[in-house]
Amino acid sequence: MYCYIKMVSRSLLTLSLLTAFSLFADDKPLVHVTETKQWDGGIQKTLYCRGDVLFRPHISSHVQAQLDWILPVDTEVKKGDLIAKQNDFYLVQTLASLTSRLAAAKAQASFSAQEYQRIQSLDKQDMVSVSDLSRAELDAQVSKQGYQALQAEQRTLKHQIAHLDHYAPADGKVFELNAQPGEWVEMGDSLLVFLPMDNQEVVCRMSLDLYQQVEQLSLASFYLEEGISLQLNRLASEVNEADQTFNLHFNFKGGASAALFLGQRVTVKMQMHADDLSLIAYDALNLNDNEYYVWQVDEDNKVKQVPIKIVDTLGQHAVIQSPIKVGQWLVVRGGKSLKQSDAVIVANKNDTNVNNAKVRL
Amino acid sequence: MRFVDKYSGIIIAFSALLVLLGVISSLKLPNALLPDLDQQEIAMLINWQGKTATEIEQVLIIPLERQLASIGQLKHSQSFISNGETWMRLFFQSQTDMEKAYMDVMARINQIPDWPAQVAKPLIFDYSNGAGSTVASMYLYSELEELTPDDFRQAYRAHIASVLSNVSGIANINLSHSPLAQRMDIEFDPKALTRFSLSIDDVTEKLHDLIDRSGDKMKLGSKAYDLHFKGQMSLTELTQLPVAVSGERIIRLGELAKVHKRFVTEWDYSSFEGHPAMYFSFQPDKKTNALDITDELSAVMTELNQGALAELGMKLSFRANTSKPIKHALSLVYTNILLGVLLACLFLYVFIRDLKVVFLIFVSIPVCLSLVILGMYFGGRSLNVISLAGMALSVGLLLDASIIVMENIQRLRVEGLNLTESLYQGVKQVRGALISSTLSSIVIFVPIVLMQSSTSQLFEDLAYTISSALIASILVALLLLPALGRRVLSSHSHMNDADKPLSSRKKWSLRLTTPSRSRLQANIWVGLGVVGALMLTWWVMPAIDLLPNPKSESVIAYVDFKEPLSQEAAVEQVAYVIEARFAKERVKPEAPALTTYILSCNPGYCYLNLRPSEGVDYARFEQWLETRILNDLPDTDLYIRQSNLLGGAIQGGDRSRVDLKGLSLAELQQAGQALKDIIKERIAGSQVLETVALSNNATQIEFTPKADKLAYLGLSRADLNRYLVALTDGEYLGRFSAGNESFPFYFKGQEVEHIEQLLETELMIPNHGLLPLRDLVDTQMVLAPSAIFRADNEMTISLGVVPPNGQPMGPFVDQVKVIVSEYIKEQGPHGLYVAYQGQAGELDSFLKEFLLTFLVSLLVLFLLMRIALGSWLFAIAVMSSMPLAIAGGMLGLNVLNLFMPQDLDVITMIGFIILMGLVINNAILLVGEFKTGMQEGSTQQVAIYRAVSMRMRPIFMSTGTSIFGMLPLMLTPGDGAEIYRGLAGVIVGGMTFSALFTLGFMSALLSLPVFAIKPEEQKVSAVDEEELVDPI
């Protein structure tokens, strides 16, 4: 009897008294979810690049002459603008002298030709020796050659005199000076380096690792951060020994251009298409050993564990490749104790705030 | 007596003076809830913000453990390592010289090799010096606006710190939840560095050692000039510091970075009634009056709230004013004492029917209690629940000596002696027996006081007060009583006893001694009294627990996060939600009244401390909390309980722990998870709490250097990690002096919002130009332990086990031990072993010690009996009465259990030892009287009858007064009553049972042939009544 009383009273006490520790848990776990978003940006990687030009043409001297005048470095010029001028005095004098010599050579050539004609007619009458005839022929030819040589020399000099003034071959900029005004430059010496405007390209370094991950570089799109599209023009064949990177050369697509300085550092986004990409909140990611997964909530409010691959992270979101479709709901809070096919209560299906941050009341 | 006769006036005056001094001392004695418990523990807090638990373990804790491993008297150590912070606790043997241990710990800490320069040395708390206790705690908050930690810091430093530190009795203000330490960050923009093609090293080498130096003196003229080389600079100068040159241009630090201060440690989020708050607590000096301290703090707080803080729109408030429960608990005990005195005196009057005699006996109470208080005052004790309970228990006990003396005096007066002679002889005749019985009651406390477990400290005050009261009662009975009797009692005898029909006492004596006149009855009585009593004891013994569970008025809730959150997420997703719910639900009419609530959140959990209004039903309150406030918080585990007054009383915590060791962390986690599932399955309703998570639940982003690439670039892993640290947490540069303060100084990258931003950061690699971080490291997300627990220098997985509702700890722990052993034997991995800590360990060690103490007490009593009674046989006879008392004690607990939960906790167990010392007196007096009768020539039956007849009344009177004196302690509900209720129940039950049955039992026992001195005179048949000599 006593034991019975003790048992009943203890049971009543147990039911009615406070618990020492109580673990409170709903049968169905409560979860917060977020919607999977569309991601059209493909897989994106960043390349580190610099502005560059295809060529850096030199303006060189055609003749040995003093440099009278040259534009300063960084002067912008239009096509056809005078950018350097060499002194023509000595060349002009030389041309005048040459013109005199040319006249004399012409007269000599004419006389020699007439003499030859006379000797030829005498030869018909057997009045001259063969050697006389030959000598007359030789004189006539030498004079003629001499005249022609002087003519060629005159043309060269005239060309040189015509190219003492140097003009911009295109719109661009004086990039570098190799001669200073007053300096004598030899024939063939570079006066300046010219930077044409329409000569720009973007040179990027790509690591070998990244190159090996990309399936087909030709299918990727490239663009500057401002959205300007680039086209892959050339690929280097040599890899830097130390950092295992190599160069890619891009030019601007469709006639577009960007005001890039030579050597200016820029980043270029490389975008590769991939199937089954979507954008999810970071909080939806779960990790199990080395596999990432998400909990997807279906129409019946049951959860399904879906393995995923993270291809990129963008701020508080991740771009994933997985069977998850756009618009499907993923668990962002409350997923720690879930098991496959668990039924859940969704707290916030209509709340499209991906971060589910609470504002202080 | 002649001495008393001669100096009776002085004795009476001196006694009055003692009472006055006792009252004065009682006002000066410190008040506390519990006695000062020397916790043989030193704790250390190590802060290294921004570092993972794994790194802290490797770099700091393992070397620290190695250094401390050989400290003398170290019993046990444990380290709880979480991200950014570690608590290490060292537990020492109970008799350790803690001052020496403290100095030893400090010295060893200073000798740890390779302690990182930027990590402050551990903050040490000597819990043996009261450092662990908190006398009060406060919140600083504003109702008007949201304050930032900087606002709090300024207000605290400017207005609060100095004022509160001056409160007497405060040893330290604990700011560990709101640490004020700051650091100076030079926060650089990595893009600015790359723009100037600068490496991190290029800049940091210009920032080291920015301190002033001095050289020798230079004599110029008649003076010697000190040479001072400026290195220190102000913040403004710092931003202008040249760090590099590019062509003609000087690059200054301000172009690359901004300089600003921030807190070293991110504060836990704390709020008071929904207002963000700063929390701090007060640690008292040892042996201080908690009530005085809280009163003074309260006055200071009021002054600040009305003064400087009012101008700032801020307010201070107590979180937990410990004076209230202390005052409630103490006043309850005072009430119990007064009630006990009243009941005991009423009972006396029923017996004696003589007011003067009752008055004389009653006088012992104030005089004895005053002596006890004086003893406590000079002994450095405090007025606490335990010491006051001891005084309440002794109210009835200290009347015993006076009752016995007065009874004897009255008997002699009735026999015809005059007053003076009665007083003299009355004392003389009982003096020896009184002293020996009192000594036997006192000596029982010696083994208790010598117990070494930390739990046993609770009993020191109990032993002190009861034994002091007993000693005082002897002095009063032998000195004051006769002195006062001369003045109070009339010279003519006026004995109620003379009016009492002789036949009534004779009838009762005959009834009680009936067992002695029948061999069969005697044997049955003896058998039942010993064997039966022991069996009854075993059968009705309640379950064993460590401590009683006295509830305090507050409710505590933990919202544990299943995986760590960021501080911001913990605040936004949990703290703000809880606060919003409180704001909404509290105003509803059906909501239970709530006085205050405080909330504290960190990445691991949120903690609530709530104070329901008086009169609120706690069960309903907890249900409201569970269903309206803390419901539906995803990925959390919820724990709610009413807080316990004894929560921090005992070293090792308020739960039991099963520590698993011997394997790698992953294997231990697996074993821990398996055991957790098994325990929960096999013990329904039990809770298994993870001290650290049983799986790696903290996500980390792991950076793995590309080793080959680093080799080509001429970089080491250490170099790369240094860059990574600089970009994230900051590279430590030394200390920077700004004004009057000195700060640790870091070169740190700007905050990054996401991992891509970090990986796209370009670094200048010497001789190789700029490279993005992505090209130097691979990253992946991994799971890592959010916290690591180490016990006794080993990796440990610890499971906190909590019994189901209402089940005490003892049997539950036994079940758990069986389960664990089976697991290890059948399934456990090889190498796994287990240790039990917390309540389980404490209970084990206490039980072992208690059993030994119990046996020693029995032995001591036995030897005392042998000396007092001069015979082994009689000593055995006296000891044989113990089982009845013990059985009675157990029954007393079971009666209590009918009305409220009452387990066999350690305080209750001590009650049995005290009980033995008390009930033994009755048996001693009986046996003594029997022996005297036999020696004077009486037959065995007559001697028994005589002994019972003579001792019946004083036994019933003294037992009755003791019982009634203790009854309020046992029955009165209130704050802290659970602490001593079981103790009172044991003693009341045991003494009652003893009073009811000891006379009959002892009659039966003493009637055994073995106790007959003259065998030829033993009679088995009934005794002719006329042959019985009326002893009076």
From TrEMBL, chain A:
Signal peptide: 1-25
Gene3D superfamilies: 2.40.30.170, 2.40.420.20, 2.40.50.100, Helix hairpin bin
Pfam family, one: RND-MFP_C
InterPro entries, alphabetized: MdtA-like_C, RND_pump_MFP
Multidrug resistance protein MdtA-like C-terminal permuted SH3 domain segment(s): 289-336
Key words of the record: Signal
Family: Belongs to the membrane fusion protein (MFP) (TC 8.A.1) family.
NCBIfam families, sorted: RND_mfp
Protein name according to UniProt: Efflux RND transporter periplasmic adaptor subunit
TrEMBL record, chain B:
SUPFAM superfamilies registered for this protein in UniProt: Multidrug efflux transporter AcrB pore domain, PN1, PN2, PC1 and PC2 subdomains (SSF82693), Multidrug efflux transporter AcrB TolC docking domain, DN and DC subdomains (SSF82714), Multidrug efflux transporter AcrB transmembrane domain (SSF82866)
Ranges in coiled-coil conformation: none
Pfam families: ACR_tran
Gene3D superfamilies the UniProt entry points to: Multidrug efflux transporter AcrB pore domain, Multidrug efflux transporter AcrB pore domain like, Multidrug efflux transporter AcrB TolC docking domain, DN and DC subdomains, Multidrug efflux transporter AcrB transmembrane domain
Residues annotated as transmembrane: 329-350, 357-379, 385-409, 430-450, 462-485, 522-541, 846-865, 872-900, 906-927, 954-971, 983-1011
Keywords attached to this entry: Membrane, Transmembrane, Transmembrane helix
Protein name as annotated: Efflux RND transporter permease subunit
Species of provenance: Shewanella surugensis
